[in-house]
Amino acid sequence: MTRDRTASRRRVRVFAAHVTALAIGCTALVEIPASAVTLPKGHDVSAHQRNVDWQRAKAQGARFVYIKATESTGYRNPRFDQQYNGSREAGLMRGAYHFALPDKSSGRAQAAHFVHNGGGWTADGWTLPPALDVEYNPYDKRHKCYGLSKAGMVGWIASFSAEVKRLTGRRPVIYTTTHWWNTCTGGSSAFAADHALWIARYGSADAGALPAGWSFWTFWQYDNGGSLPGDQNVFNGSGSDLREFARGS
């Protein structure tokens, strides 16, 4: 997932992609995999992608986009408004995501910061539910689970989710890898029943187990580069299914 997009962000991204590749034993793909070629295509972006040409992205097949809004409680994407509003004006469904730093503050505090800085939701058929990006700590390799115990991490995610639900009426989509989930939550199945899964797996989405409890993925991030700006994704359903998902069905 795209995170803070400064000079350090490029180093972080290389590390994160390397961890993901090691976890799944696959290499990144250049083109959309054959198993997902008919699914609605989308991408995720951050400040690193700057002023995205949304009309061009749509012409290249994008139907949806997730945009980084916040990180911890002290960062808001300075290009968020252009990206969020511009994508909608171009006819894309769009949503916001928060990059979690569970060692910095509580899940509730980060959820409030997120929702008040772009992570809202409305049942208009254009706004995707808020998303929580939880993955290995890109800033401290020695504390890849942010210094939290497995139970502590589960509690942090639950607190974030509860506050997002209270403020928006939707549970957040959870973006993660199976390896991170097993390592840092102990394979918790507490979220699968009411949280859509956004799986990061650079290879086949059907290869290997999903995080505990989930029997299917809703979004699949299959590459960190391609025809669309940012990371490449697909939605597990039809275009009308995606619209209904945005509405809250």
Brief write-up:
With 249 residues, the chain is an alpha/beta fold. Helices cover 32% and strands 18% of the residues. It has one domain (7-247): Glycosidases (TIM Barrel, Alpha-Beta Barrel), CATH 3.20.20.80.
SSE arrangement:
Layout: H1 7-24, E1 41-45, H2 54-59, E2 62-71, E3 75-76, H3 80-89, E4 93-99, H4 107-115, E5 131-133, H5 150-168, E6 173-176, H6 178-185, E7 197-200, E8 219-223, E9 231-235, H7 239-247
Parallel strand pairs: 1-2, 2-4, 4-5, 5-6, 6-7, 7-8
Antiparallel strand pairs: 1-9, 2-3, 8-9
Helix pairs in contact: 4-5
Distance between the termini: 26 Å
Mean model confidence by pLDDT: 87
Summarize the main sheet.
Answer: 8 strands, mixed, barrel
Strand order of the largest sheet: 1-2-4-5-6-7-8-9
Structural class: alpha/beta
Per CATH, what is the topology? Answer: TIM Barrel
- Can you tell me the CATH superfamily? Glycosidases
Question: What is the domain total for the residues?
Answer: 1
Number of strands: 9
Rg: 16 Å
The proportion of strand residues reads 15-25%
